[in-house]
Structure formats: structure tokens, C-alpha cells
Amino acid sequence: MAILTPCAFVLPVSTVERIMLLGTLLVVLMVELLNSSVEAAIDRISLERHSLSKRAKDFGSAAVMLALILCGGTWMAIAGPHVLHWLRQLGG
């Protein structure tokens, strides 16, 4: 987030695209915070292994992965062409 946030302001994109780039970063952060809260609550209840606790933690991790996929896809679709253009200019 520390690297991509400034990049979102440097890229020559529309306001809506910039909001989408920054919004997906915030979605990842929010989902990660929710996942951490689920894990903390489960660990607070009991540190012993239980199948439901494992499932809850796995679902939280899966939610983070889906948020990262959404973020990565959005960044590739919006920022990718600009980065490729810059790389072609540097190489050629």
C-alpha cells in the first residue's frame, strides 16, 4: 500500500480509475483487518485446535486472497498499459 498509493497519484489516469486503484487497496486493508480480528477472537476463545476455528481462519484468509486478486486485476487492467508504455519508451 505504501508503494502503490503514490503510484496511483502519478499515473495519468482518470479520476474514476484513480478511485478504483485506491479503493481496491483500501478493500485489501479492510479485509485484512477483519481477518485479523476473526483470528484474534478465535485465539482469545481457545488456543486448542478445533475444526470450526480452522475453518473460520481459512475463510478469513480466503477473503484476503480474493481481495488481493481483485486488487491485482484492477491494477493490471488500469496501470498495466501505462507501465508497458513507459517500459517500451525506456527500451526503444
Automatic annotation (TrEMBL):
It is a multi-pass membrane protein. Its cofactor is Mg(2+). It comes from the Bacteria. It is found in: Cell inner membrane. GO terms for molecular function: ATP-dependent diacylglycerol kinase activity. Gene3D superfamilies: 1.10.287.3610. It is an enzyme of class 2 (transferase). It catalyses: a 1,2-diacyl-sn-glycerol + ATP = a 1,2-diacyl-sn-glycero-3-phosphate + ADP + H(+). The chain crosses the membrane at residues 19-38, 59-78. Its EC number is 2.7.1.107. Keywords: ATP-binding, Cell inner membrane, Cell membrane, Kinase, Lipid biosynthesis, Lipid metabolism, Magnesium, Membrane, Metal-binding, Nucleotide-binding, Phospholipid biosynthesis, Phospholipid metabolism, Transferase, Transmembrane, Transmembrane helix. Belongs to the bacterial diacylglycerol kinase family. Catalyzes the ATP-dependent phosphorylation of sn-l,2-diacylglycerol (DAG) to phosphatidic acid. Involved in the recycling of diacylglycerol produced as a by-product during membrane-derived oligosaccharide (MDO) biosynthesis. This is Diacylglycerol kinase. It comes from Cupriavidus laharis. The gene is dgkA.
